[in-house]
Design brief:
heterodimer; A: mainly alpha; 12 helices; 6% strand; globular; B: alpha/beta
Chain lengths: 290, 304
């Protein structure tokens, strides 16, 4: 572990200085393995399910799960659609092999196409959402009777709302949701995620040629630094533009965060009674039996 | 002659009082076997920390039978443990008891109840209203529960009123993982422990818990810091451990001879200055135009 007080110098917002995003990966690694172990044990589950896409986020989660639960207790699922990149399959297999996981492959094409067959042409985003939700439905099916479904959404995706509700965003436990994409990349390197997976451009692979950064219109490096200053350090958008960040980008990202906030909270329940689930009936989830 | 102290860096089960009592018995036995005169448990060790609406359900009066097993276990070793106390006026408190020779001899109610960031103590609990020094197995002691220690006035008050040991049971969640630093919270706590120990020339006994509650990791790192700033013993981060350390009352004496900060402290000046400030505060309040001054409007009581 790094020595206390090693950083000298005040953290200023600076579009050219990404150093505030750096993390102590070894410490994070320990915390996340302990998180998975303890939260599974508390709820009486001995197994976890993770959808392995061939991308870096799910590779990191698979690695953490294998270490925390033992590879035999991790159900790793690869669920391609007919348009999925062949690279995804190759990389998912590479990841599974690297972390000693048996990879189960389930083609979701028949069920997705059967649904859309009678509906004519639909927008690719609608089709993508359907794919994400079919995959999650399969993960939950595979979790029965003693497993928990792991989430792989990182902090950047969660804050930007770049994900499908009840699709890729759905899970029981998410070990990586407090790590920005660039931080998760650092962790993935430490965990030994294959280089080819670490280096390839991030993609949801929901349609041919899709890349996260192409769809978002900015890079993760840009978004992460802006989000870090806005969220973690509580600066205001104006503070960032004064410091030289692109105002359109800063305000665009801030607006994405605002607009997508509904995706990050539990559904709203209309309060009418004296005591209401979610409002003033508040118990910890880890409430243990005596 | 040194006195041996033990810290039970454990992981209480959330909302499971009876299981936690059994867990306390195990750790007390281990501390007794290790020859300790006192074993200190973390904040809310008998209930778990993020209780929310469970707080009222797990509360007990200080003299309640539910705490009897802890009293019984304290016949040949002093025990300090945390529980939810239902006060005489029915208020709930985050309390730390001190049991000795089979009886509860001191209770500290957490005064500073954080309600920022990941904390919501003030929603569920009422604050304590005093800091009392009491005789413990390791000398005159004061208890500062977690957030209490972050308020610089608290260790000062204990130091100024005769404590030579500061017991700080905590449920401190680990957060802040920037490279080039320790875990953010660990760094802050270690800085406090050492600073208070060295400049109030007393022992700081920091008893933090480990384990997870609702995704939040308590980081451990319990430690005993001597009045000369030496870290006498430190438990690992994130793992259970019975930490054993020697408290040397003679070191307090030698350190206070060498560095008589407490002897030369002027609490009378502090009291006088704060008294002046208090009357200034009151005067300024009177100068402020009254909210109800506008004609035709009733006083806005309860406005938020």
């Amino acid at each position: 572990m790094a020595l206390a007080g090693q950083r000298i110098g005040v953290i200023h917002p600076d579009p050219k200085d990404a150093s505030p995003l750096r993390i102590d990966e070894a410490l994070v690694h320990r915390m996340l393995v302990a998180f998975l172990k303890e939260e599974c044990a508390k709820s009486g589950h001995r197994r976890v399910v993770v959808g392995v896409s061939g991308g870096i986020d799910s590779a990191a989660v698979a690695a953490l799960a294998a270490e925390a639960m033992g590879p035999a207790n991790v159900s790793a699922l690869f669920m391609p659609y007919r348009t999925s990149s062949p690279d995804s399959a190759e990389h998912a297999r590479l990841v599974a092999k690297r972390f000693g996981l048996a990879l189960e492959e389930i083609d979701i094409t028949p069920q997705v196409d059967a649904y859309f067959a009678k509906r004519g042409e639909v927008h690719q985003v609608r089709r993508g959402n359907k794919m994400a939700r079919e995959r999650k439905a399969i993960e939950y099916d595979r979790s029965w009777p003693d497993g928990l479904v792991l989430g792989t959404s990182n902090k950047t995706e969660l804050l930007l709302g770049y994900g499908t509700r009840y699709g890729d965003m759905a899970c029981d436990l998410n070990p990586v949701g407090d790590l920005y994409k660039t931080q998760l990349r650092e962790l993935a390197v430490l965990l030994g995620v294959p280089d080819v997976v670490v280096r390839k451009p991030p993609t949801a692979d929901l349609w041919v040629g899709q890349t996260d950064e192409g769809e978002l219109g900015f890079t993760y490096a840009q978004a992460d630094l802006i989000l870090y200053h806005l969220v973690d350090r509580r600066l205001r958008p104006a503070d960032l533009t004064v410091a030289g960040f692109d105002p359109t980008l800063v305000n665009g990202i801030r607006e994405r965060v605002r607009r997508s906030h509904y995706k990050r909270v539990m559904p709203l329940i209309a309060k009418v009674s004296l005591r209401t689930v979610g409002h003033d009936f508040l118990y910890p989830r880890d409430w243990e039996a005596d | 002659m040194t006195v041996r102290i033990a810290i039970a860096q454990c992981a209480p089960a959330l909302g499971a009082f009876r299981r936690n009592v059994a867990m306390h018995h195990e750790w007390i036995a281990r501390a007794r076997d290790a020859g300790a005169a006192l074993v200190v448990f973390p904040e809310l060790s008998l209930t778990g920390y993020y209780l929310k609406d469970l707080a009222g359900e797990l509360a007990c009066r200080a003299g309640d039978d539910a705490l009897r097993p802890i009293a019984e276990a304290s016949r040949d070793i002093d025990v300090s443990a945390g529980f939810v106390e239902r006060g005489p006026d029915a208020r709930l408190h985050i309390s730390q008891g001190y049991w000795s020779r089979g009886a509860l001899v001191h209770v500290h109610r957490k005064v500073y109840l954080p309600t920022y960031g990941i904390f919501d103590d003030g929603r569920y609990f009422g604050p304590g209203d005093r800091f009392e020094v009491f005789p413990s197995a390791v000398g005159p002691a004061g208890i500062a529960i977690c957030e209490d220690l972050w308020h610089v006035s608290v260790p000062y008050l204990y130091g100024a009123t005769g404590a030579t040991v500061l017991l700080s049971p905590a449920s401190s969640p680990g957060r802040g993982v920037a490279e080039g630093g320790d875990l953010g919270t660990a760094e802050s706590c270690r800085l406090m422990d050492r600073f208070y120990a060295q400049y109030l020339t007393l022992y700081v006994v920091f008893a933090n818990r480990v384990g997870h509650e609702d995704g939040i990791a308590f980081w451990g790192g319990s430690e005993v810091v001597a009045p000369d700033g030496t870290v006498v013993a430190r438990a690992p981060d994130f793992a259970e451990q019975l930490l054993v350390a020697e408290i040397d009352p003679d070191l307090v004496a030698r350190e206070r001879d060498r560095n008589p900060l407490i002897r030369d402290e002027r609490p009378d000046l502090v009291v006088a200055q704060l008294a002046r400030a208090a009357s200034d505060f009151a005067a300024r309040r009177e100068e402020r135009p009254a909210v109800s001054a506008s004609p035709g409007r009733s006083p806005e009581i309860g406005q938020d």
